[in-house]
Amino acid sequence: xxxxxxxxxxxxxxxxxxxxxxxxxxxxxxxxxxxxxxxxxxxxxxxxxxxxxxxxxxxxxxxxxxxxxxxxxxxxxxxxxxxxxxxxxxxxxxxxxxxxxxxxxxxxxxxxxxxxxxxxxxxxxxxxxxxxxxxxxxxxxxxxxxxxxxxxxxxxxxxxxxxxxxxxxxxxxxxxxxxxxxxxxxxxxxxxxxxxxxxxxxxxxxxxxxxxxxxxxx
Amino acid sequence: xxxxxxxxxxxxxxxxxxxxxxxxxxxxxxxxxxxxxxxxxxxxxxxxxxxxxxxxxxxxxxxxxxxxxxxxxxxxxxxxxxxxxxxxxxxxxxxxxxxxxxxxxxxxxxxxxxxxxxxxxxxxxxxxxxxxxxxxxxxxxxxxxxxxxxxxxxxxxxxxxxxxxxxxxxxxxxxxxxxxxxxxxxxxxxxxxxxxxxxxxxxxxxxxxxxxxxxxxx
Lengths: 218, 218
Description:
Number of helices of chain A: 11
Strand content of chain A: under 5%
Oligomer: homodimer
Number of strands of chain A: 0
Structural class of chain A: mainly alpha
Shape of chain A: globular
Largest sheet of chain A: none
CATH architecture of the largest domain in chain A: Orthogonal Bundle
Number of domains of chain A: 2
Largest interface: A-B, 44 and 44 residues
Radius of gyration of chain A: 19 Å
Distance between the termini of chain A: 35 Å
CATH class of the largest domain in chain A: Mainly Alpha
């Protein structure tokens, strides 16, 4: 694990949260090509600023377009929907729609195992793990970032999974499953306690899957 | 929750880890009363420095006494054993011996519930929760602090609980239980996702206890 890389990622996100008030107004840059790499970076910077200032729920694509001084249609052309722009702005590798589809598609008895395998798919890859850890660290130490992640998780991850569960208290169920995944990330990849940190994925899947299965549909 | 208070606590611990190299050598302070409040603070400062520099496992009471320029007997008189000095230095409210005793004493079928109730006892109290969160945040963002907490957890928490479990792979079991507790802390108290953050303890205990029960002795 590259601890320095995480720290940089954390700093970038936290800085966006802290420096948004000081962001200069940059109207009418004359030499900028429309739709070039600068525009993309401007949109991402504006998205980080707006999300940090107002939270995920209260930030509209329209407000980001206005802040970046681009046409809303161009914003949609580049980044699609709000959740996709959020993920791009944070460089966060989780694709909530893929997660929801993977967890829900298939037999009900395999929900827990599919979720834990999806999590390991993300976490055993060094590059995506570093991005997940950077976002988690930022959320653990910065209340603005925690609020942002909370809004995103509620709207795009917990909500859709809960909606597909035919069981009482679906939101609480999805969140309990999330606590086990977050705890696994902390124990195996952040604190890196042994033997958990070195245990093979195939040993851990049958230990963790029943927990997620019970929380989600038990 | 007082986010500012956490940030301060985190900073204090992280600072101890970062500034240890720059700590001045303070030999023979002439006006210091032996055994006074200054001595206690000197010992705690020396303990933070030594633990941060060498990790929990590789720091001896003798080395801390030498660093604080006090008699080793005085150190033991003030703080008892190494784990107690560690907890005092980090202002960390977890009493691992009480935890181990509480979890192990009683019928085997109630291990999971006793552990989750112990955790809530610590976390539902605002003062001790803030200290737990400060240590967890520091460990999430500072590799030296993560190493320190890892050594302490392995030696004083996971080890004793594992030793009392009559089941295969006891260390891995105790660590899996730890991941669920840490994930609960992150989800309910740090990210504070709803409805998890506001759910009554008595609703959560029967949901979480079977997970811990299965990890520990299932």
